[in-house]
Amino acid sequence: MARFKRILITGAAGRLGSVLRKELAGLADKLRLTDIADMGKAADNEEIIQCDQGDYDKILEITRDVDAVVHLGGIPLENTFENILHANIRGSYNVYEACRRNGVSRIIYGSSNHAIGFYEREAMIGSDVPHRPDSLYGLSKAFTEDLARYYYDKFGVETVSIRIGSSFEEPVDRRMLATWLSFRDFAQMVERSLTVPRVGFTVVYGVSDNREQFWNNQQANVLGYQPQDSADVFREKVEANTTVPDPKDIAVVYCGGSFPAAGHYEDNH
């Protein structure tokens, strides 16, 4: 039996949004899907509404009559500040304000490790450290985590912010042996975030049960999250196909990988 009448997924055309279309299908009578990109044909239990989340009036409309929102929408990589501002910062504000006005009490936010990407790998930080974004993209994730804190403290809108490591079908480089999040574990984390009785304002790391870890993910215990997969299944393959990196390389020093190592995006665009 479905636990919800309607769940909204923003960014539904993306890699992880596509995963959740399948994995959350049985959790709600209806999945309402939105993205600026084409989402294909709606399944029997889906409602598809294509829109730009920078359009507040449209976001206000599509957050009506939903029980919860899984917010994955926005630009998924580094970009110009104006594009990040519109899609990720203004877009996320629109989602939170529309949810407040429409009485939506829980949001699951697809944050990123790039909100804290300038911490050294060996620091083994928890989820309660100050932000150290490694990019304009990471800055937008830090902003939305703070936005979620504000909307919980002031209005009682609960949020689980999932700082996603590297969620792909399988890890493709040595860094991902520590940061990989399987699709199955991601879906479990989202489902637990939706269904536990209380989450308040919670920040967790989206990683699988990898032998190497950059982050202390103890806070995920609040959700009852129990990862089923590990990057170590792919370790031999990854190490055979990649070279041992220079430990002094900025992309190795900091847990954000190539993002801290990259120059300021605006300098070349």
Task: Walk me through what this model shows.
This protein has 269 residues and is of the alpha/beta class. It has one domain (4-268): NAD(P)-binding Rossmann-like Domain (Rossmann fold), CATH 3.40.50.720. It is 33% helix and 16% strand. It is built from nine helices and seven strands. It has a seven-stranded parallel β-sheet with strand order 3-2-1-4-5-6-7, with helices on both faces. α1 packs across α6 (183-195) and α3 runs parallel beside α4. The longest helix has 22 residues, at 81-102. It is globular. The model has no long low-confidence stretch (mean pLDDT 97). This is NAD(P)-dependent oxidoreductase. Keywords: NAD, Oxidoreductase.
Give the total of beta strands.
7
**Count, helices:** 9
In sequence order, what are the helices and strands, one letter per element? EHEEHEHEHEHHEHHH
Q: Identify the overall geometry.
A: globular
* Low-pLDDT runs: none
The main pleated sheet reads as:
7 strands, parallel
Ends distance = 50 Å
What percent of residues are in strands?
Answer: 15-25%
| CATH architecture name | 3-Layer(aba) Sandwich
Q: Round the mean pLDDT to the nearest integer and report it.
A: 97
| CATH class value | Alpha Beta
Q: Report the C-alpha radius of gyration, rounded.
A: 18 Å
- Name the structural class: alpha/beta
- The number of domains is 1
Name the helicity range.
Answer: 25-40%
Biggest β-sheet: strands ordered side by side in the sheet? 3-2-1-4-5-6-7
CATH superfamily: NAD(P)-binding Rossmann-like Domain
* CATH topology value: Rossmann fold
Protein name: NAD(P)-dependent oxidoreductase
Organism: Candidatus Pantoea multigeneris
Keywords: NAD, Oxidoreductase
InterPro entries: Epimerase_deHydtase, NAD(P)-bd_dom_sf
